[in-house]
């Protein structure tokens, strides 16, 4: 089960990724999380400030930094039965580098939600920093306002969940998604080894409905 999950920020991609990794026992390799871990860690990393500033502005991190981080992560033993790539690849160079490194993808899942709905969702999104659990003030509220359901700790809003940043991220996302899907479509057209199956899922339904639709597709494929 080697998957790429695609979805604009706020499409529900993170929530669905959690369901998939539990159901199929595969690790979720989220580049956003890996990068936020680098920023939070006490390790000396030459790129820490650059990563922090780029994420804050909603810009992409340079390919060489991200490719190294992901390829090293995929060498870990928990990836032996598959993986769920979340947020990677996002550029043509990243897709090429992945193919060169022999990293195979069986399925691409795209969760589609319109931009206007995304913006409404983003404003209310809150996360529990240490577990990655995601809530929404309106659509998926925690039992106690502003607190994680399991630990009771305070929920936070991501620095990059603001209107200006989200508009920038949406426009970057649409451009990168097109490049990526064209790349994989090309592999399919020319029957080049390792082309994945592509599935587009309507992300406007309820969380449970989207999850069931994804599961039924993945079980068949
Ligand atoms: P995400 O949590 O996936 O929305 O990622 C948050 C931010 O991390 C993005 O807006 C980018 O600045 C950076 N980022 C995550 N994945 C990548 C990637 N594959 N390539 C470049 N930048 C990335």
**Through-space gap between termini:** 9 Å
The strands making up the biggest β-sheet line up spatially as 2-3-1-4-7
CATH topology of the largest domain: Rossmann fold
Number of helices: 8
Q: Name every ligand kind in the structure.
A: adenosine monophosphate
What order do the SSEs take from the amino end to the carboxyl end, as H and E? Answer: EHEHHHEHEHEEHEH
As for the number of domains, it is 2
How much helicity do the residues have? 40-55%
Mean pLDDT: 90
What does the main sheet amount to?
5 strands, parallel
The percentage of residues in β strands lies in 5-15%
Could you explain the architecture of this structure?
The protein has 221 residues and is of the alpha/beta class. It folds into two domains: 2-114 and 163-220, 3-Layer(aba) Sandwich (Rossmann fold), CATH 3.40.50.300; 125-160, no CATH class. It has eight helices and seven strands. The longest helix has 27 residues, at 163-189. It is globular and about 50 Å long. The model has no long low-confidence stretch (mean pLDDT 90). The structure holds adenosine monophosphate. Adenosine monophosphate binds next to helix 2 and helix 3. It is an enzyme of class 2 (transferase). Monomer. Residues 124-161 are annotated as: LID. Belongs to the adenylate kinase family.
